[in-house]
Each structure stands twice: as C-alpha cells, then as structure tokens.
Amino acid sequence: MKTRKRLITQTPECLTDPTSQVISVIISTLFALVFLTAYVPFSETAWFRVGWSKDGTGGPNYFFITLAFVGAATIFLAFSRILMNWVLRKSRHFPFWLYILWLFLEIMIIAICHTLISYFQIPGKSTEYSFAYLYAKSVLISFIAIAVPYTVTTLAIMLKDTQQRLMLTKSDMVESDDEVMPEHTEIINLMDNNGNLKLSVKLDNLYYIKAEDNYINVFFQRGGAIASYMLRCKMKTIEDNCVDSSSLMRCHRSYIVNIKKVSVLHNESDGFIIDFEREGLESIPVSKTYSQKVLEAFNKK
Question: Is residue 255 within 8 Å of 285, Cβ to Cβ?
C-alpha cells in the first residue's frame, strides 16, 4: 500500500523540467505585476507602484521599493526552483503533495516579506493597521497574484505534455534509440494495439517499461540521455511478446525491468525496491508475486 501511494503521488516530470520552471516563474511575475497595479487604487493598505509619481500618491521611494521587492521575489523564486531540482535529483522521489507544499511555502514567504515592507518601511502603515491585519491582506493578495498563475501554468504544462504524448501514440513513424546496431544485437520491437511497430530499441539501452492506464511508457537511453516513449499498448502484450529474455522481466503489475540495468535491490518493509545504475530514474517496486524470480535473476547477473 505504501508503494502504491508513492507511485500515484509522484510529481509529473513535465512540471519539474527546467524549461517549465522558467516559464512558470516568468508568467507568475508578469501576472503579479499586472494584478497588483490594478489592485492598488482599490486598497487602503497598498503601497505598490510601478510608475514614478511625484503628486504625493507615491513618490520615487515607492517606485524603488516596488522595484526592489519585485526583483528580490523573482530571484527568490528562481533559486527556489533551482533548489527544487537539486532535491529532485538527490531524492529521485518527489511526491506531488511536496510539489504543492513547496509552491505554497513560496507564496507564504513572499507574503511575509510584503507584510514586513508594509509595516516597517511604508510611512503610516504600522500605526494605522496591526501587523496581523497587514499579514492577512498580504497572504490574500499573494495567493491571488501568484497562486492563480501557478495553477494556470501547471494545468497548461500538463495539458501540453498530455497532447504531446497522444501525438506520439498516433504517429505512423517508428521511433528508435538512433544507434547503429551491430550484428547479433538483441533488439526489442514494441507495437501498439493495432500491431503497428512504434519503437525499436537495443535491449542494452532499455531500462524499464511502465504501465500508465491504457498506455505504456518506455524508458531507454538515446544519445547519452534518458528518453521516454509512450504508446497505446497493454502490459500483458509486452509481457507475452517481449519477455523472452533472461534480462527483461516483469517485477510488478505496472513494471517490466531490464535486470541487467539494476544496480541495487533494496529489501524494505513493504517489499523489494529496484534502483538503476543511472541516476534520475525512479525506484521500482517489486511485488511479492515476482520477488523470488527477480531476486534470483539479480543474483545471477
């Protein structure tokens, strides 16, 4: 049960991709600027200014404070995402709840900074309003200004990733790992439900195959990097047609692994866990049904 929860809550790779992170930070910053500029005239506690006003409503000090705050917040978000990717590379497992919590903490930290500026740096705010009141307003503003673009960009990135995966499954082209195959090299040919060849990969480059609803996702090495390819196919079909090698075997209802690529087999409280020789790949659970067979194959390799 613990393993199942870990797999379900894994953060989609498309959200932690560096390009997606940059897009999220840029869009969030721009949306926050637009929202706060529009919000200022309707709030008695607002100090945010993007224009240099000398008519007594803002003044140059407000402009520089605003500029410093936006710059510092953007730098903070950039370093936060760099740290997120570092944690992801180190831990391999980054549950989706942790991703949401991370974004929530980003918003809360920015809200605290906004409150401190309002209370200590803007004349009159500390005497007119309590710190708790200013903090509550800052939290509300921060959630609207940042959580909205976070949500929109997250949904847009996941939708685009889903569309790209579906396009791959509908493609008539045959993918491969782009390597010249020496004679007698063992090749794994994967076909979709209609019998169309979709992927041809050298067995030595294949790490594992993962079932995802009505699709399978194949993880393999191409050009020195890890690539994945999704096609509409049943896991049972792959097991019946491809698992005829001593190195490619079923270890879980959702996974088929290349045992030659396994570097560590952990014996945990809820069963064995597979780790690969290459970093950046998820750990794979081993069901009790397959544990003895996997253990024997791992000891022989």
Answer: yes
Which helix (H) or strand (E) element contains residue 183?
none
Rounded Cα gap, residues 262 and 258, in angstroms = 7
Helices 59-91 and 18-39, interaxial angle, to 10°?
150
Instruction: Give me 34's structure tokens.
Output: 């637009």
Domain residue limits at 253: 175-300
Residue from 269, 232, 274, 227 nearest 252 by CA: 274
pLDDT tens readout for residues 89-104: 776 667 888 899 999 9
Strands 206-212 and 175-176: unpaired
**What pTM does this model have?**
0.54
Distance CA 232, CA 170 (A): 9
Q: Are residues 34 and 141 in the same domain?
A: yes
| Same domain membership, residue 223 and residue 145 | no
- 217 DSSP β-pair partners: 210, 230
Count CA within 13 A, CB hemisphere, residue 169: 19
Q: What does the DSSP assignment read for 97-158? A: HHHHHHHHHHHHHHHHHHHHHHHHTSTTHHHHS-HHHHHHHHHHHHIIIIIHHHHHHHHHHH
Same domain flag for 82 and 202: no
**Same-domain pairing of 217 and 114:** no
Q: Which two tokens stand for residue 90?
A: 């180190």
180 and 158 inside one domain: no
Handedness of CA 151, 154, 159, 160 (dihedral sign): positive
* Alpha-carbon span 94 to 87, nearest angstrom: 8
Report how many domains make up the chain.
Answer: 2
Residue 94, H or E segment: none
Q: Each residue of 32-89: pLDDT tens digit?
A: 888 888 887 777 766 666 554 544 445 556 777 778 888 899 999 999 999 988 887 7
